[in-house]
Amino acid sequence: MNSVLLDTSFLITFSDPNRPNHQVAIAYYKECIARKISMYLSTIVISEFQVKQAINDLPLRNFIVLPFNVDHAMRCGIVIRQMNRDAGDDRVQVKDDYKLISQCDCESIDFIFSEDANTLSKYLEKGREIGLVSAKSILLRNGLDLSWFENGQQSILS
Fold first, then answer.
1. 155 Cβ contact partners less than 8 Å away, ≥ 6 residues apart
2. How far is CA 23 from CA 12, 20, 39, 140, in A?
3. What is the spatial distance between Cα 62 and Cα 139, in angstroms, rounded to a whole number?
4. Minimal CA–CA distance to 99: which of 78, 126, 129, 122?
5. Strand ranges inside 31-122, DSSP E
6. Among candidates 149, 104, 154, 155, which has minimal Cα distance to 2?
7. Contact 68, 45 (CB under 8 A)
8. pLDDT tens digits for 16-44?
9. Do residues 13 and 52 touch, judged by C-beta distance below 8 A?
10. Which residue of 18, 59, 148, 149 has the lowest C-beta tally within 10 Å?
11. Does position 136 have pLDDT exceeding 90, yes or no?
12. What is the spatial distance between Cα 114 and Cα 20, in angstroms, rounded to a whole number?
């Protein structure tokens, strides 16, 4: 793992000690710091997070802010054209997920930390299946898995 994009759901869980996967989010954050993994914070995620909590509450010095640029927008158009939204999925939420997926693709970001299995992870996997994107989703509900940091290799001692 060289880089990760932080999804809104990750940030919410990271900042709220009452959420079930708070300690998992903290553990992934600390592991990224310890291993010097680049943690990207999309301006799209910032706008979503800011709705309920100030982004300044987070340790911003440890994140690389990633603006949504023209190349991301162009890639997003291609992603939308090639991946249909499932019936029943919220159009606005899916559009933002497509934008995050496009940013990962354009910036060669390896992973997305998320709690969103219903849309973001689902569409990321669909994009991988058709060869459209290469990033993978790491869901907090699955607990801390250090093998993500070791190219899928597990320690003999774990």
1. 146
2. 12, 8, 18, 9
3. 21
4. 78
5. 38-42, 64-66, 111-114
6. 149
7. no
8. 999 999 999 999 999 999 999 999 999 99
9. no
10. 18
11. yes
12. 13
